[in-house]
Design goal:
373 residues; Arc Repressor Mutant, subunit A; single chain
Length: 373
């Protein structure tokens, strides 16, 4: 079969084996439908591999040649050479003679030198790549073979990688969270459900010296949390409880509760039960802060990708703003404000107050400049 055609000089020119040759009659290159998919796949794989191996972090201090970088990463020279060739072509690395260096943006975004180390996300992507290979079967089954939390319990390193990524993601949302709360300096009790990394509890306790906090999350996600709390000298004010938040005792008498980036990992009835319990442990007039990704507030492609990820990892789904606020209302809370963060992929903050007499110690809840979105 002849997939090409001859010009006036008899030279064979490639045609389009997948489409109509008439589409290329104007001289435009014939389409290659798999090329974009292949390059996207290899880009994600190479960046994830670089993050997992610590390649960008290794080059953050100084340029290296392939041999030096391979020795630092304890990897083969051949493998490092091919990986860095691709990363140079991608623009993530630069090459001057034999020396390799990070592009400036790479160091800023994907190493600890930047304000948020998204390199933790690259490393997590390398781990979750193996889980996502189950996507075809998950589509057939309608859910994951094993829940992400069960995988983390079986593989502590997976839990550590997840917690590190969530810690960096929490830093991304942290300015929005603290900007939306204006609490007094009096004694306060904080409940942080699913706050494995400790970022929010640590920052709020730092800002409010008379606040005490309890973090509740799976033990597999808490491997570094106690050390981080101790590094901030807050171990006498922040307690850590390694347990399944769906069924353990949280304690009582909280003024503020955080339920941040957790709702999408629970099914609708689990969320309803959690909100009902929050209505019991938060004092009348106390505050509930939810961060999640209501499906109507995010770009369509990102929302669809996120729901497909959940199908493979947790078997749950994203909830709408109406579903979240409806369950909150059933539990005895009144939604005060919704803040759609920017960019929209960052999620939404929902701040609600428990019905009843306002706790005297709690002042204005929402910072200046915020309102209904």
């Amino acid at each position: 079969m002849d997939y090409g055609r001859r010009d006036g000089a008899g030279t064979i020119r490639a045609g389009d084996p997948w489409g109509d040759d008439d589409d290329a009659a104007d001289g435009a290159p014939a389409p290659m439908p798999m090329l974009g998919i292949y390059l996207q796949m290899m880009t994600a794989a190479a960046m994830a591999t670089a993050g997992k191996l610590g390649l960008f972090e290794a080059l953050a201090d100084r340029p290296m040649d392939v041999a030096g970088l391979a020795e630092t990463l304890q990897a083969s020279r051949t493998g490092v050479e091919r990986l860095t060739d691709f990363l140079v072509a991608l623009g993530s690395l630069t090459r001057r003679g034999p020396m390799l260096a990070n592009a400036a943006e790479t160091t800023r975004l994907f190493t600890a030198r930047g304000p948020i180390d998204w390199g933790a996300g690259l490393s997590w992507t390398a781990d979750v790549w193996k889980i996502m290979s189950d996507l075809p079967d998950a589509v057939v089954r309608g859910g994951p073979e094993r829940l992400l939390w069960d995988r983390m319990a079986e593989d502590p390193a997976l839990g550590q990688a997840f917690s590190r990524y969530m810690r960096e993601a929490a830093k991304f949302v942290l300015p929005d969270l603290v900007g939306a709360l204006d609490l007094p300096d009096g004694p306060l009790r904080l409940l942080d459900l699913g706050g494995s990394h400790g970022v929010h509890s640590i920052e709020l306790c730092r800002r409010y010296p008379r606040m005490d906090a309890v973090i509740v999350d799976l033990e597999s996600a808490l491997s570094e949390t106690r050390t981080r709390i101790a590094d901030h000298r807050l171990e006498d004010r922040i307690a850590v409880q390694g347990a399944d938040l769906r069924c353990c005792d949280w304690g009582q008498g909280y003024d503020v509760a955080l339920y941040l980036s957790v709702a999408h990992n629970m099914d609708i009835e689990e969320n309803r039960a959690i909100f009902r319990r929050l209505g019991e442990v938060i004092r009348p007039g106390g505050i509930l802060v939810i961060h999640d990704y209501p499906k109507e507030t995010r770009p369509l492609l990102f929302e669809a990708a996120f729901r497909l990820t959940l199908l493979t990892e947790t078997g749950t789904r994203t909830l709408s703003h109406a579903e979240l606020t409806g369950m909150v209302a059933e539990a005895g809370f009144t939604t005060q404000v919704r803040i759609v963060l920017s960019p929209a992929e960052k999620g939404t903050l929902i701040i609600a107050r428990r019905a009843g007499a306002r706790v005297a110690a709690l002042g204005r809840m929402v910072g200046e400049g915020f309102g209904q979105n």
